[in-house]
Amino acid sequence: MTGYLELGLFLPSTRGGLIIAKGTPPQNEPTWELNRDVTLAAEAGGMDFVLSQVKWRGYGGETRHWDAALESFTLMSALAAVTSRIKLFASCAVRTVNPAVLAKMAATVDQVAGGRFGVNIVAGWNKFEYAQMGLWSDDDYYLNRYEYADEYLTILKRLWSEEEVDFDGKYFTLGACRSEPKPANPLKIVCAGQSDGALDFVSRQSDFSFVGRMNDTPEQLAAVVDKIGGMAASHGRQVRSYTLLNVIAAPTDAEAEAERQTYLNNRDEDAIQEFLRASGMDVNRADYLKLDPATVTFMSIPCIAASYDKVAAYLDRLAASGLHGVCLTFPDFSTDVPDFIANVMPRMTSRQPL
Ligand SMILES: Cc1cc2nc3c(=O)[nH]c(=O)nc-3n(C[C@H](O)[C@H](O)[C@H](O)COP(=O)(O)O)c2cc1C
């Protein structure tokens, strides 16, 4: 049976979003006004959440893709103040912020948001982002990043619930550490890691997991959803799965496909090469990304380009595969979000009241 599918936005907080192509769109500037306006449109249109990523270095090229990126926590705090219902997730690169600092940042944003806030835990995979600020001392960090994240989360959860925390770990030491205010309710934790270490971390520490690779079928997604659900159940926990999806929707398949081709034809080869160079250090992605250079234009994120009817039907299939929600990204958020709300959401059976 098809469940209710949550829908959210992967906010346009980085230049170019998830399409490495020249032209406008997709190279809309990641301004506060754009992010505020699309979040308000998503909230008014009945969407469930927005998430912003954390990025410290882009890929250059003619488009200077991702070179500009709004900081995630400060952005979400401002969005918390201007919204009232939609859930908000900021991303934390655990390598960059001491957990005692992050505990207070998150509790503060959650207070502004009235309990609508959660944290996306980013272990960090791009050495260039962290090496440039002296935070990647050696490549062992990459190998042990989810062990590091695990210690980090253990500390966060204790600071959010205990009066004083003593901790003597491999990476962190806390002595009678205090943190107030406490969040009114436990904050929801998201993680999008795909590696074995990440799945183990997710099953023990997070509430939501992002799953899915470029060419996964809904059936393959269902298998991953089941796997994570089973791993979490073995720890007496529940983890809900989401996926990230690039959407190009139009009245007809032909129009959507023509738009997709435009981005492929205008792809920024230099920025793509830099993205591959950075990704090549990630052993999980290296071979995978080199299979089909053209689709790297969409940054290895699944992309559907189709009519409103077919996009709605595809989302319903994702709901049927056990996914709890989908995080959406678009070439041009300012026009595509209202278009999606008006023309795709009403066609989805997985958005009708149960
Ligand atoms: C929805 C979503 C959000 C993500 N957000 C970020 C982010 O903000 N910053 C980042 O560096 N990586 C981000 N990632 C990448 C993941 O955190 C993770 O590093 C990647 O999926 C590779 O998994 P692994 O670390 O298990 O190898 C995101 C991925 C997804 C699907």
Q: Could you estimate the helical fraction of the residues in percent? A: 40-55%
The major sheet is characterized as: 8 strands, parallel, barrel
Helix- and strand-based class?
Answer: alpha/beta
CATH class descriptor: Alpha Beta
State the domain count: 1
CATH architecture: Alpha-Beta Barrel
Molecular shape: globular
Keywords:
354 residues, TIM Barrel, 8-stranded parallel beta barrel, two-stranded antiparallel sheet, 41% helix, binds flavin mononucleotide
Structure report:
The strands form two sheets. An eight-stranded parallel barrel has the order 1-2-3-4-7-8-9-11, surrounded by eight helices. It has a two-stranded antiparallel ribbon with strand order 5-6. Helix 2 (72-82) packs parallel to helix 3 (99-113), helix 3 packs across helix 6 (145-161) and helix 6 runs parallel beside helix 7 (196-205). It is an alpha/beta fold and 354 residues long. 41% of the residues lie in helices and 17% in strands. 47% of the residues are buried. The termini are close together. Bound molecules: flavin mononucleotide. Flavin mononucleotide (FMN) binds next to strand 4.
